[in-house]
Amino acid sequence: MLKYSRVFGLVVFVFLFAMCNQKSKNESDKETILKGSIDITVDETVKPIVDDQVAVFEGTYYDAKITVKPKSEAEVINDLLNQKTEVVVTTRNLTKEELQRFEKSKIKPRVTPFATDAIALISNKSNNDTLIALKTVLDLMQGKPDGKIKGLVFDNPNSSTVRFMKELAKVKEIPTSGVFSFKTNEEVIKFVSENDGMIGIVGVNWLSQPSPNMIETIKKINILSVKGLKGDKYYDPSQTDIALKEYPLARDLFIINCQGYSGLGMGFASFIAGDIGQRIVLKSGLMPVKTPTRKLKIRSQIINDKE
């Protein structure tokens, strides 16, 4: 009888040991703000800056894995509303109607602005005129071409750039003549580099941070200076003109988190909005929401370290 009791006790011990190990394993696999894995759906026009943020974030927190999925703006918002994704990066805030849909699902989105981006107008390098009036572009979108440009080239009919320009032109649909679209910003840049007289409309992030395979292609295009609807001056999609709010095609960037708990989405949003994330934005050529500070040490005399 004593023998059976010892065997039973051993079985119970092994069972409890296994349960404790399983509990420890589950706790170690639990997602936190700095650990776990998550997919982030990103507006394709700003993918380069998000890739940079993810690379540094993962390099700092080794237990974090973030997969970036670029899509058009319409797809990004639809995936968020249909709960196919929980964290997105967009070039606009949620509308009142979209927020109401989340309220019905008892979801409170956390919206964090982290940068100001711009839409850039580009032309073929053979075009010596590097100035363009925004009105010329809007007239073409309204179906009133003046012959100064052959056509406009967008990245995607459902992209944020199309939506932004349609709102400026106050049109519901883009004209079927004189306006073309592809799928990505890279395709637009390549097409413009090979076709004179066309004006490409892309996210400036693709020009300030080109992928290695696009560096030579970008050398074949001009980034145009744009005159707004008011005033006679032309401005560039540069960090300076964006910061001074002079460039007429600037827009804000947001990370929207609908996880509903303290997960990796919250950690990544805090990172982007924090000091390191804002320095990455500044280095990228975009304008951070918070300009990182620099501490200067003033010395009363110069110390010469060389003999």
Determine the number of helices (DSSP H or I, runs of at least 4 residues). Answer: 12
Going by CATH, what is the homologous superfamily of the largest domain? Periplasmic binding protein-like II
CATH architecture identity of the largest domain: 3-Layer(aba) Sandwich
- Report the CATH topology name of the largest domain: D-Maltodextrin-Binding Protein, domain 2
The chain-level mean pLDDT equals 87
**Contiguous uncertain segments of 5+ residues:** 1-28
Number of domains: 2
Helical residue percent band: 25-40%
Quaternary structure annotation: single chain
* Strand count: 13
Compute the separation of the termini in Å: 89 Å
Order of helices and strands: HEHEHEHEEHEHEHEHHEEEHEHHE
Mind summarizing the main beta sheet?
10 strands, mixed
Task: Please tell me how large the radius of gyration is.
Answer: 26 Å
Give the strand content: 15-25%
User: What would CATH call the class of the largest domain?
Assistant: Alpha Beta
Pfam families: PBP_like_2
Protein name: Phosphate ABC transporter substrate-binding protein, PhoT family
Keywords: Signal
Organism: Flavobacterium saccharophilum
